[in-house]
Every structure is written in C-alpha cells, then in structure tokens.
Write a structure and sequence with these properties.
It is built from 13 helices and 14 strands. The radius of gyration is 21 Å and the shape is globular. The mean pLDDT is about 95.
Length: about 375
C-alpha cells in the first residue's frame, strides 16, 4: 500500500506531469513571468467555468478577501458578519481594515453560517456578510441572499474550500458557489481542490464597475501605469501558477468526482455508527469535499488523532480554536461571545485524508483503524 497522505499532491502531479511540464516550459520560453498570457488564459477559462463575467486573479485567498472589502468602500467601524468556525483568514482581514467582525453561529449539520444567526446579529452598522462554504459544503445562500436584500447588505463569499460546487435554488436555477453574492473569493493554495504549486487567489463578480475597482486595488490602485487613483496593494497571480492552474482546471470536475467517491466509501463504512456523524449533504448543493470531517460523540477525539498517527494515517482538526476565542480578537470583544454550537464542534470534529488519489486499499485501512479505536 502506498503511504497515506492528507493530500497527495505528488501522485496527482504524476498523473498530469506532461501537461503541467509543457505549460511551465511555455512560460519559461516566453519569459512573461508577471501578467503574462498564462494569467490571461487562466482568468478567461475560469470565467467560463464559473459562468461569471469577471475573474480577477491575485496573490492569495487572504488578499482576495481584503481586496473585496476594500472595493466595497467599507469604512472603519462598519460591521461585517462572519462565522467564527472558519480559518482565521476570513476574519483577520476584517480586523486588518479596522472593520468590526461580528461572529455568529454555524449550523451544526452543514458547518456553515446559520442564516437565523445572521438575522439576529444585524445592526444599523452592519454592511456585509461573509458566508464561508466550509469543507466543500455550500452555505444556505438562498436564505442569506434574502436577508442581504432585506437589509441592503453586501455578500462576500469565501469560496476557498468549495470551488466547483453547484448551488441549486428553489426555482431550479443552478450557480457555482462564489458567483452568487456581490463578490466571490477563492484561494489556490496547493491543498485546495483547485490548487497551484504555490500561493494564488482570485476574486469574482458580475458587476462591471466593481470589477474595475477590484482590478485597480489589486494593482497599486492604478488603471493606467503610474496614475494611482485609489489606495491599493500589490497582489497578483504569477504566470507559473496560472499555467499550472489552467491545466488543473481542466481536471477539476474529475477531481470532484474522485473526492465524492472517497467520501461515499467513508459514508458507507461509518453509516449509522452511534458515535460517528458523517458529513451532511445539503439538498441545495453538491458537496465537493475539500475535507471529509466527522463529528465524534463519546470518543476521545485527540486520542483518535494520535492513534491514527501511530498507524501512519494523517488526520487534522479544523479548527481547534474558533476565531472568537483567538487572542487577536480580544480587542473586538471576541471573548464575550457565547457560541455554543461553534464551541461544541471545535471539541468534536476530525478530518480524515481526502484527496483525488485515494484508492480502496488506503480507504479500507483508514476506515478499519478509525473503527478499531472508536469501538474499543
């Protein structure tokens, strides 16, 4: 049996090596390392895939969130509603821009922001909502869109973990996650479902004027070289990463199917186990399984994590400390929040290996060891 990886990028690369190597050598031959043809081609291809007018590549997913908030003209003191159960990048950019993060609960089944909690948290200072499509599961965007429309709020979708997921509205309309709100953002960190071989990110919108703002902010606030109309930043996707991503984009749907196959294997193995809750699959979207995350009840979660490591099976706890309990948010009243569901989840979740190269032998071994520990 091949060694088990949390994410096996080496095997994934081996399967597309010729395509990737050719794409990289094209960039080397062109010497257009910044804003070259590879970036333009990838941006256009991703725009077609997502069926959205504008894709603005940038340096990473954190920058994507920051640039999105800057483009919306949010001002210090404005409130931004965000889940606490998420990677810290979602929330730290709010604080970085001197906005006020307002932490709300997630749904215990989907792990995504709870629309009812959003409604309760809205004040006259609220300007935006940041739903996170966590672990590859889409948030309830139809309900969130209705709340945003009612209160005239912006929606910035953090789609770093769910690119390629389809969201189905009650009227039958289907849209890709990240294309539903005012602005969508994503990360191309190597472990993501669509990941590069270094850092990268992108911003999505259908609004022409907003797209121009986003492009300017990402490029030092300039629309014309050396003429700076806005305070911006320097955030760009380099041509090497764009070339790799353009190859991998062609395989993204197949990668999603492979992840779903692995998830089906796990689901069947853990079905109806009284101590294990497998990932919920909401009726409104197809889960693309950036992570496969269990909820354990009556099990020593950290003990399982250690037991698996002893048998050369990696596992991860995403996330052991929610944002509102991080020291960085003490100044924003983080410790004063009472988020029982969030705290409950952080004590019980564990993520198993999930990637495109998992085979049945590896999956069976992982499952057998999980059950061995849980059943003891």
């Amino acid at each position: 049996m091949r060694p088990i990886q949390m994410v096996d990028l080496k095997q994934q690369y081996a399967a597309i090596k010729t395509e990737v190597d050719t794409a990289i050598h094209e960039v080397l031959d062109s010497a257009a390392f910044i804003n070259g043809k590879a970036v333009t081609d990838f941006s256009a291809a991703l725009s077609r895939y997502l069926d959205i007018k504008h894709v603005i590549p940038c340096a990473n997913g954190t920058d994507a969130l920051q640039i999105a908030m800057m483009a919306l003209g949010l001002e210090p003191g404005d409130e931004v509603i965000t889940p606490s159960f998420t990677y810290v990048a979602t929330t730290e950019v709010v604080a970085l821009l001197r906005l006020k993060p307002v932490f709300v609960e997630v749904d215990a089944k989907t792990f995504c922001i709870d629309p009812a909690a959003i409604e309760k948290a809205i004040t006259p200072k609220t300007k935006a909502i940041v739903p996170v499509h966590l672990y590859g599961q889409a948030a309830n965007m139809e309900a969130i869109m209705q709340i945003a429309a009612k209160h005239n709020l912006y929606i910035i979708e953090d789609n770093a973990q769910a690119i390629g997921a389809d969201y189905r509205f009650s009227n039958g309309t289907v849209k890709k996650t990240g294309t539903i709100g005012t602005i969508g953002t994503t990360s191309f960190f190597p472990s993501k479902n669509l990941g590069g071989y270094g850092d990268g990110g992108a911003i999505f919108t259908n609004d022409d004027a907003l797209a121009n703002q986003l492009k300017m902010i990402a490029n030092h606030g300039q629309s014309k070289r050396y003429y700076h109309d806005l305070v911006g930043c320097n955030s760009r996707l380099d041509s090497m990463q764009a070339a790799v991503l353009n190859v991998k984009l062609q395989h993204l749907d197949a990668y999603i199917v492979a992840r779903q196959r692995a998830a089906d294997f796990y689901d069947k193995a853990f079905a109806a186990h009284p101590k294990i809750t497998t990932p919920y699959r909401a009726s409104w979207s197809n889960h693309v399984f950036h992570q496969y995350t269990l909820i354990l009840e009556g099990v020593n979660r950290d003990g399982l994590n250690q037991f698996l490591a002893e048998h050369s099976i990696p596992s991860m706890i995403y996330y052991p400390v929610p944002a509102h309990r991080q020291k960085m948010f003490d100044a924003f009243g983080g410790s004063g929040y009472q988020l029982e569901t969030t705290d409950w989840l952080t004590e019980r979740v564990i993520s198993l290996p999930m990637h495109t190269e998992l085979d049945n032998e590896q999956l069976q071994f992982i499952v057998s060891k999980v059950l061995e520990y849980v059943n003891q």
